[in-house]
Amino acid sequence: MGYVKEQIRVIKERDPAIKTSAEVFLYPSFYALLFHKWGHWFYKKKHFFIARLISQIGRGLTGIEIHPGAIIGKGLFIDHGMGVVIGETCEIGDNVTIYHGVTLGGTGKDHGKRHPTIGNNVMISTGAKVLGPFKVGDNSRIAANAVVLQEIPEDSTVVGIPGKVVRIQGKRINPCEDLDQVKLPDPVKMEICTLRRTVEGLEEQLKSLEHQMGLSDKELKGMKKAVVLDESPEIYVSPEFCERMQQTEFIRQPNQHRCEDENCENKEACNDYQEKNQ
User: Fold this and answer.
1) Which CDD domains match (predicted)?
2) pTM of the entire structure?
């Protein structure tokens, strides 16, 4: 009866769709965790075949696969549940919420601890994958379809592929009360915005240099190629440009630039400039 009362409390707390206590007996999570309790008891007694048999029966009835070796704390709720996989050495803390399509799996074929440890009060959203022997800190949230491959600090939100942590400072996350899976920060979008601002700043600096140096289109095209490439070809510039070379360090490899005019009077100055900057 203790298990039934706990499940009634947990499901009514976290699923707004439930209307009566009797509906708890229609939830796949209720039976999946019940089968796991039985299977885990046999697993600890080293009756591995019976434990695995019970686990497979539960998987067939509920669509939720929990290895009998997994250690599960109090108050776990698996909403909908279809496609959830929990590996052998996985450890789950108290008051964790897991949605359908979640995998708590391992990487490689090593023996020993190879599955994640989930802290208390963690929410793992639809389709998320947590792979490897690391810890997900207490009060954390993992967004839908995120792929988590490394340790997650406490009180954090993880989104994206691979998963990136977004710190929630000054606010503890309680997934039992806040089940919003949509309004989560997007670190990929934030990174793109940062890169765009950086590129815009570089373009402004480049325009300023072009204006100061008064370069022709041919010279600009050659200089841009020289800046981008590690091994740029020889670039032919006008004699007037040789004088300006002495006052700028804009070109990465000045020794690869020569004047197109064989009779240029500034060749000596150009050579001096190249020797100083080699």
Assistant:
1) LbH_SAT
2) 0.58
